[in-house]
Design a protein that fits this description.
Oligomer: heterodimer
Radius of gyration of chain B: 14 Å
CATH superfamily of chain B: Cobalamin-binding domain
CATH topology of the largest domain in chain A: Rossmann fold
Distance between the termini of chain B: 21 Å
CATH class of the largest domain in chain A: Alpha Beta
Number of domains of chain B: 1
Helix content of chain B: 40-55%
GO molecular function (chain B): cobalamin binding; isomerase activity; metal ion binding
CATH class of chain B: Alpha Beta
Number of helices of chain B: 5
Largest sheet of chain A: 7 strands, parallel
Strand order of the largest sheet of chain B: 2-1-3-4-5
CATH architecture of the largest domain in chain A: 3-Layer(aba) Sandwich
Number of strands of chain A: 8
CATH architecture of chain B: 3-Layer(aba) Sandwich
InterPro entries (chain B): Acid_CoA_mut_C, Cobalamin-bd, Cobalamin-bd_sf
Cofactor (chain B): adenosylcob(III)alamin
Domain B12-binding (chain B): 9-138
Strand order of the largest sheet of chain A: 4-2-5-1-6-7-8
Protein name (chain B): Methylmalonyl-CoA mutase
Radius of gyration of chain A: 23 Å
Strand content of chain A: 5-15%
Chain lengths: 356, 138
């Protein structure tokens, strides 16, 4: 039996060391890791995958810690993938989210794994998706992906999750921030963490306005005066009165949940929101669509990586990219012309395939 | 094919264990390791040996660097080593110790599986070099 088969068997048997090793193989792209991940697919599909994102200092790790603790109290096992950026210069990274995972210390059934971006071109989101599969196959009930919401890379990563929570700290900017494209759009649930701080009410209000604006532009529903009592906000699933009922058939209205992660306040409500979203996904059939899209993206990423690798090899064989760049620098040619030249044989090959 | 190319990075856990509350040295090492291109996981202060074991196993680190200034290394380090052994993680983890460790205690720590001890005054370059040369092949 090969060592990969042994490690796979150990993982399926629930050995933590084997899970850790499989994730390393995925991260390292060790020889044979693809076969290993292929094998994992047959054992996946049971776990709920939740993505948590938000700006640095929003309190993600503390919240994840409390979520993990609450899941454990309910008898469910938890996997956490905490993603931190790495240096673009040295590739080094300090992966610090683990520090705040204090509530579940000594409990191996909370499996925390820190990851950083090593490759490029969607490499991290592929690695994350594969690590989720490893945890799923291992038998984790809940898998939480935690990442700083700073850009496209993070958005790709949280797409790996069924439900995405975006943390918005109080006072995180004027309303124009909430109009900008990006991480707010991917939220299935908004979490205003540190809700005991000044400005929390205003942030909730801004988010609510934004959601309402979105609904109105979708189809002329909504209205309302924009003033709600605190109780109504807390009971997120009916915070908007009638207009929500109108929309319940049409789609998911992103709830806003207020939490104080340090004290655990609001965690139960947040878990309810996750549960509601999951129910919605399954009842509406959106889950199937979501999973299909995810696999489509995985296939695309793999193809892109493979083709990229072939091209890199080709470039290396033909004297390296530096020589080509030098030709551009000296004004001999331009990047577009070179791309055309390099890809011409590929084009020819594909055409040949089509005519066959 | 180069998509199968390995993207290995040396992973280190920089650990503070026990009661001592000074982690400046640990921060300096964490940063130096980061700048050397390693992936560093920092444990935070006041960790119990079992927390360090849990992190070492789950994070599958190549290197565990334990920083102790409190003098409790002779009770804490063996607990960590036993915990690693329990999860089959002892043999392929390079364990280093740093901080204030009297000469007469070194032999005992080395017997327990600590590969090197870096006392006060050790240059970070020396430590990084040692890690590069001795990080386990897996």
């Amino acid at each position: 039996m090969s060592s990969d088969e042994t490690v796979l068997e150990d993982l399926l048997e629930g050995k933590h060391r084997a899970l850790a090793r499989v994730i390393s193989k995925i991260e390292n792209r060790s020889p044979g890791y693809r076969d290993l991940v292929s094998e994992l697919y047959a054992h996946t599909g049971e776990a709920d995958v939740i993505g948590i994102t938000g700006s640095p200092g929003a309190g993600k790790s503390t919240l994840v810690d409390k979520l993990a603790e609450t899941y454990r109290e309910r008898g469910e096992t938890v996997g956490v993938i905490a993603i931190d950026p790495s240096s673009p210069f040295t590739g080094g990274a300090v992966l610090g989210d683990r520090i705040r995972m204090a509530s579940t210390v000594g409990d191996m059934d909370v499996f925390v794994r820190s990851m950083s971006a090593r490759g490029t071109l969607g490499g991290l989101s592929t690695a994350t998706a594969d690590a989720v599969k490893a945890m799923d196959a291992f038998g984790k009930d809940k898998i939480i992906i935690e990442t700083v919401g700073a850009g496209q890379n993070e958005i790709d990563i949280v797409r790996t999750a069924d439900t995405v929570a975006v943390l918005v700290p109080p006072g995180s900017g004027d309303e124009i921030q909430t109009l900008k494209a990006g991480i707010l759009e991917i939220a299935d649930v908004f979490v205003v963490n540190k809700a005991d701080r000044d400005g929390a009410d205003r942030t909730v209000q801004e988010l609510r306005d934004m959601i309402q604006l979105g609904n109105e532009s979708g189809f002329a529903a909504g209205g309302g005066d924009g003033h709600h009592s605190q109780e109504v906000i807390d009971a997120h699933d009916d915070w908007d009165g009638e207009s929500v009922e109108d929309e319940s058939d049409a789609g998911w209205t992103t709830p806003i949940v207020e939490t104080v992660a340090t004290s655990g306040e609001g965690i139960e409500t947040l878990l309810e929101a996750f549960h509601d979203h999951r129910t919605y996904l399954h009842d509406s059939g959106e889950h199937a669509e979501q999973v299909r899209q995810r696999y489509a993206e995985e296939i695309r990423t793999l193809l892109r990586e493979d083709i990229h690798a072939m091209l890199e090899e080709e470039l290396a064989d033909s004297g390296g990219i530096d020589a080509l760049a030098e030709r551009v620098r000296t004004g001999e040619t331009d990047p577009y012309a070179i791309a055309g030249e390099v890809l011409a044989p590929v084009d020819a090959c594909l055409e040949e395939l089509e005519t066959e | 094919m180069s998509s199968e190319q390995e993207q290995e990075s040396i992973r280190c856990l920089v650990a503070k264990v026990g009661l001592d509350g000074h982690d400046r040295g640990a921060h300096v090492i964490a940063r130096a390791f980061r700048d050397a291109g390693f992936e560093v996981i920092y444990s935070g202060l006041h960790k119990a040996p079992e927390e360090i074991v849990q992190a070492t196993v789950q994070e599958d680190v190549d290197v565990l660097g334990i920083s102790i200034l409190s003098g409790a290394h002779d009770t804490l380090v063996p607990k960590i080593m036993d915990g690693l052994a329990e999860y089959d993680a002892k043999n392929d983890t390079l364990v280093l110790a740093g901080g204030v460790i009297p000469d007469e205690d070194r032999e005992q720590l080395e017997e327990q599986g600590v590969s090197a001890i870096f006392g006060p005054g050790t240059s970070v370059e020396e430590t990084i070099e040692f890690v590069r040369e001795n990080a386990p092949e897996r």
